[in-house]
UniProtKB/TrEMBL annotation, chain C:
Subcellular location: Cell inner membrane
Species whose genome carries this gene: Devosia epidermidihirudinis
PROSITE patterns per UniProt: ABC_TRANSPORTER_1, ABC_TRANSPORTER_2
Residue ranges of domain ABC transporter in the record: 6-256
Membrane topology per record: Peripheral membrane protein
Protein name per its UniProtKB record: Peptide ABC transporter ATP-binding protein
Gene Ontology molecular function terms on file: ATP binding; ATP hydrolysis activity
UniProt entry keywords in alphabetical sequence: ATP-binding, Cell membrane, Membrane, Nucleotide-binding, Transport
CDD domains: ABC_NikE_OppD_transporters
Family: Belongs to the ABC transporter superfamily.
Cellular component, GO annotation: plasma membrane
Highest rank taxon of the organism: Bacteria
A Gene Ontology BP annotation from the UniProt entry: transmembrane transport
Main location as per UniProt: membrane
Length: 309, 390, 334
């Protein structure tokens, strides 16, 4: 087990390095260079800026410098906001993004799984039909559409929740709902089909043949097995929440990392784009590791040491 | 019991007895088609998608407007309106409607064609009123209290005489006075082009990559799959974002960006299929008979892997549509004045407070399209997945 | 003969799917007496498993019991409410399934799976249940029982898993054990071990057993009486010796004819009779065997034959008093 985690960490470092390299060279492949949009810059100022950000050095030297920075957890300065580091940008946005993201993950598990169970237990009856209808809508309609429509209906029309800001708990409702809508639906569908499949398993018949009560059969024998595929999507859920936060934070004007990222893109703030991308990758890999460990807890057939081979 | 007639004890002719009714056996594709046609949502979806494609290709030719024609005088016109009718002494009726958000009056004819904006006299900024002369009568637009009202000469409020569809701009106009319908159709063009081209590119890359990995096996396979693993650690949308930063926005960029990123699922599926098919006897047989590698790949392996590939493809199309609209929504997709469903939605969001109806069409278009492809994908999966075969 | 432990009468079970109704069991009757092993044989799809699942009402969602009764311990299992039925399942009637690979829950330790049955039906502490589980493992001869309780099913071989299944079925000293092809999925050498174990346990514990099998050798060796099923119906029943010596039903004869020598281990699996069994979505009106029977008559196609004969009953028109004589079936061969 510890060797497995060490192996995984090694693999993660390798992956991270690949992503750092990829983003670094992608960003340096941008035609022109970072200061090109500032037309009025005098050549000498431009040269001074280039020198300041090390852009006058050969690219491999810049790359080494950047890697060194990353090893000391320093993502460098922002190109656009003098004196502001990318670390600070991330640190500023993190609480908001974390809070909405965490609430969204909780919503995915706390709503998606029970809805799926209800649907599976009432197969082809009205609760099933209702849940599946809502879930189909949730899976098909893009999150930004859900977000804007909800913004209009609940904030502008009905005034139940604020249109932007997170001053009180109401402010979280729409962003979290919009962020998690797709995955609540997805997990509900997945839980349902996984449970229905599990119900058909021989060991479920064994459990019933033992005289166990329906609750025992469902929760002890059925749910645990059907949750295995649900856990596997939790990794993608987190990934999706990250990209989802780009639009959601923009629509609801939340000062999170996602908004910062989109802002950096429109500002062509290359160091910020790189830094945030790398931060996302690192955060995701930690999440995926956690999910894998969870997976092994749920299903004893998965031997952690083998999974890495 | 004893009332069984003696002739009943005669032996049955043997061949008649042996003749067993057997259901006609269907080939894989016949069976798949039958199941697909039996799936109502999938069939409706196919119909919708065909209509959408036809509309996207031919629709704009039938429109008098182009997607970029602006008419600022007729901006933000709704697709339907309540009309007022005022009749002059000779029985000539003038019809018009009030745009309650920008306090303009527009003349329309009886069938709902928009004739133009109506010129009034100077606005009285203090009383928040504007006098008009319509059909020889003094009509006042009063917006002191919202919603705005139309007052007739004697100061009573004028009632609407009915409502009408907008026959000039079926879906209304946007904030620059462009025809929403034709922009929608152009949006469909963009979205479908991006989706199909990107999907096709992904399809070839995925087949190629997964095919090689699966066919070679061993070390090559291990390394290639490690690379796929590394790539898919980060959400693919993020790569598209990064690529768009490098390429700069635009239609071609987004096609390249989406096309070069979403092949990993396809590669995985193809590899898995090939690995499992490789074990099977007929491939070994073909190999011993001296068939070359490309021949084995194209003649034996791919036809058998086609079911899962088609399923993955139909799942890829809606995600490509979604990513494109998503990117356009956050301003990284196609550039104005080109319209995509994403930009249309984000433009509608800008005017959400005053003209919420403008959100309706792009939101409905993208949602219905996503529905259709999802249902079609589900239907195809049920029809093609051998596990569901009876 | 003493009163039967289980007495099944006219049991009917159907499945409902898009294809319509599939009549898997169409009126099955038989008795199981205390301390006997009743064998059920028949080709694949003849309704053996569904009959047994119906007795404990363990059918999957699409299956429905359409009629009949199953008397056990003075109660009709078909009429019992769910709660009372659950008190019988795993307690008074134990069940073993065909595939030990899929019948155990992969995510729970085998000890837990044995113990939960005991805890469900007996007033026992976990420690007591554990002790009983160890005892059971020893009973079914799982070596180093105490340690293996913590193992998971995937750490066991097929034969060992089937032993665990037997331990679960025996956990509460059932009066009746239903074993649905308990050895089919196992290696040939293991098959025999498991069967002998079952037979031995049956003798020691004095329970009644229903043993479903394809293997006529097994039937001859361990069962007392047989039920031969075909097309969802009982074709012939009787004491194993009578049935093997003088099979009265053409189907039973076909089955036995396909077994050249019962002592020859290599050939004793059922080899199919030419033709295929009827489609149970459209069961024939008459005798289901008509299409494959060498003696089929007009009457066979017209009406379902009743069961003729006491003790060794056969559902075949040839045993009607008016039926023409056919050598080897209703006329003792010269
Ligand atoms: N879930 C189901 N849905 C529809 N039909 C079913 C289902 N389960 C069984 N059947 C049908 O019921 C009939 C009897 O099945 P059963 O499993 O009892 O056969 P069996 O005699 O146990 O065969 P085997 O020797 O292969 O185990 C078969 O014709 C089968 O097609
Ligand atoms: S009833 Fe007729 S068809 Fe059926 S087994 Fe007897 S002889 Fe054959
Ligand atoms: Mg069976």
């Amino acid at each position: 087990m510890p060797t497995y985690i060490l192996q995984r960490l090694g693999m993660m470092l390798l992956t991270l390095w690949a992503i750092v390299t990829l983003t670094f060279f992608l960003m340096h492949a941008v035609p022109g260079g970072p200061f090109v949009s500032e037309k009025m810059l005098a050549p000498e100022i431009q040269a001074a800026l280039n020198a300041k950000y090390g852009l006058d050095q050969p690219i491999w030297a810049q790359y080494i410098t950047y890697l060194k920075g990353i090893l000391t957890l320093d993502l460098g300065p922002s190109f656009k906001y003098p004196g502001v580091s990318v670390n600070k940008m991330i640190a500023d946005g993190l609480p908001v993004t974390m809070r909405t993201g965490l609430l969204a993950v909780i919503a995915v598990v706390a709503l998606g799984v029970p809805l799926g169970i209800i649907a599976a237990l009432n197969r082809n009856k009205w609760p099933d039909t209702t849940v599946m209808l809502i879930a189909t809508i949730g899976v098909a309609i893009p999150s930004y559409v859900i977000a804007t429509v909800m913004l209009y209906v609940f904030a502008l029309r009905l005034g139940w929740v604020p249109t932007f800001g997170l001053d009180n708990w109401r402010g979280y409702i729409l962003p979290v709902f919009a962020l998690s809508g797709f995955w609540v639906s997805f997990v509900a569908r997945l839980t349902r089909s996984s449970l229905l499949e599990t119900f058909e398993q021989d060991y479920m018949t064994t459990a019933r043949a033992k005289g166990l009560r329906p609750g025992q059969v469902l929760f002890k024998h059925g749910l645990r097995n059907s949750l295995v595929p649900v856990v596997t999507v939790l990794g993608p859920v987190v990934a999706n929440l990250i990209t989802g936060s780009f639009v959601i934070e923009q629509i609801f004007a939340l000062p999170g990392i996602g908004r910062q990222f989109v802002l950096s893109i429109t500002n062509r703030d290359y160091t910020a784009i790189m830094g945030i991308t790398i931060f996302y990758a690192a955060a995701l890999m930690v999440m995926i590791l956690i999910v894998d460990l969870l997976y092994a807890v749920l299903d004893p057939r998965i031997k952690l040491s083998e999974a890495s081979a | 019991m004893s009332d069984i007639s003696p002739n009943m004890w005669e032996k049955l002719p043997q061949d008649e007895a042996v003749a067993v009714k057997s259901a006609p056996s269907l080939t894989y594709w016949q069976d798949a088609r039958r199941r697909l046609w039996a799936n109502k949502p999938a069939v409706v979806s196919i119909g919708f998608i065909i209509l959408l494609i036809l509309g996207a290709i031919f629709g704009p030719f039938f429109s008098p407007y182009s997607y970029s024609d602006q008419n600022l005088k007729l901006a933000n016109i709704p697709p339907a309106f309540d009309t007022y009718a005022v009749t002059d002494g000779e029985g000539n009726t003038t019809r018009f409607f009030l745009n309650a958000s920008n306090f303009n009056l527009y003349e329309v004819d009886a069938s709902g064609h928009v004739l133009g904006i109506m010129r009034g006299e100077r606005k009285d900024m203090l009383k928040k009123q504007q006098p008009f002369e319509i059909a020889g009568q003094a009509i006042t637009l009063d917006y002191a209290k919202l919603p705005a009202r139309i007052l007739s000469a004697d100061g009573t409020e004028l009632r609407t005489s009915g409502w009408s569809w907008n026959m000039t701009y079926l879906f209304g106009t946007d904030q620059l006075g462009r025809d929403v319908l034709v922009r929608q159709l152009f949006g469909a063009r963009i979205s479908l082009t991006v989706a199909f081209v990107a999907t096709l590119v992904n399809f070839f890359i995925g087949i190629f990559y997964g095919g090689i990995a699966g066919y070679m096996g061993g070390k090559t396979d291990a390394i290639m799959m490690r690379i796929v693993e590394i790539i898919s650690t980060v959400p693919l949308t993020l790569y598209v974002v990064l690529l768009m930063v490098v390429f700069d926005s635009g239609l071609l960029s987004i096609i390249i960006a989406i096309g070069s990123v979403f092949w990993v699922d396809m590669a995985r599926i193809v590899r898995g299929q090939i690995l499992s098919l490789k074990q099977q006897d007929y491939v070994a047989a073909a190999r011993t008979m001296g068939a070359s590698t490309p021949r084995i790949l194209t003649r034996h392996l791919l036809p058998n892997a086609i079911g899962p590939i088609i399923i993955t493809l139909t799942m890829l199309i809606p995600s490509a549509i979604f990513i494109e609209s998503f990117m356009s929504f956050i301003g990284l997709g196609v550039t104005p004045p080109l319209a995509s469903w994403g930009t249309l939605t984000s433009e509608a969001v800008e005017t959400l407070r005053a003209y919420p109806h403008q959100l309706f069409f792009p939101a409905a278009a993208i949602s219905l399209t996503m529905f259709a492809f999802n249902f079609l994908g589900d239907g195809l999966r049920d029809a093609l997945d051998p596990r569901f075969r009876k | 003969m003493s009163a039967p432990v289980l007495s099944v009468r006219d049991l009917k079970t159907s499945f409902f799917s898009q294809r319509g109704e599939v009549q898997a069991v169409r009126g099955v009757s038989f008795d199981v007496h205390p301390g006997e092993i009743l064998g059920i044989v028949g080709e694949s799809g003849s309704g053996k498993s569904i009959t047994c699942m119906s007795i404990l009402r363990l059918l999957k969602s699409t299956g429905r019991i359409m009629g009949g009764s199953a008397n056990f311990d003075g109660q009709d299992l078909m009429a019992l409410d769910q709660g009372d039925l659950r008190d019988i399942r795993g307690n008074k009637i134990g069940m073993i399934f065909q595939d030990p690979m899929t019948s155990l829950n992969p995510t729970l330790s085998v000890g837990e799976q044995v113990m939960e049955t005991i805890l469900r039906h007996r007033k026992a502490t976990r420690a007591e249940a554990r002790a009983r589980a160890i005892e059971l493992f020893e009973l079914v001869r799982i070596p180093s029982a105490a340690e293996r309780l913590k193992s998971y099913p995937h750490e066991f071989s097929g034969g060992m898993r089937q032993r665990v299944m037997i331990a679960i079925a025996l956990a509460c000293d059932p009066k009746l054990l239903i074993a649905d092809e308990p050895t089919t999925a196992l290696d040939v050498t293991i098959q025999r071990q498991i069967l002998l174990l079952l037979k031995d346990l049956q003798k020691r514990l004095g329970m009644a057993v229903i043993l479903i099998t394809h293997d006529l050798g097994v039937i001859a060796e361990v069962t007392d009486r047989i039920v031969v099923m075909y097309g969802g119906l009982v074709m012939e029943t009787g004491p194993v010796h009578d049935l093997f010596a003088t099979p009265k039903h053409p189907y039973t004869q076909g089955l036995l004819a396909s077994v050249p020598d019962l002592r020859d281990d290599t050939h004793r699996r059922l080899t199919p009779i030419p033709g295929s069994p009827p489609d149970m979505a459209h069961p024939p009106e008459g005798c289901p065997f008509t299409a494959r029977c060498p003696h089929a008559m007009q009457q066979c196609q017209a009406a379902l034959p009743p069961v003729f004969g006491e003790g060794q009953g056969a559902r075949c028109w040839l045993h009607h008093p008016d039926a023409p004589k056919v050598a080897g079936v209703n006329e003792v061969a010269a």
